[in-house]
Amino acid sequence: MGAASGLPSYRALLDRQGLSGVHETVLAGDEDAVAEGLRAFAAAGATEVLVSVVGDTEERSRTLELLSAVRRAG
Question: Which residues in 30-68 are b (16+ Cβ under 10 Å) and which e?
Answer without folding.
Answer: eeeebbebbeeeeeeeeeeeeeeeeeeeeeeebbeebbe
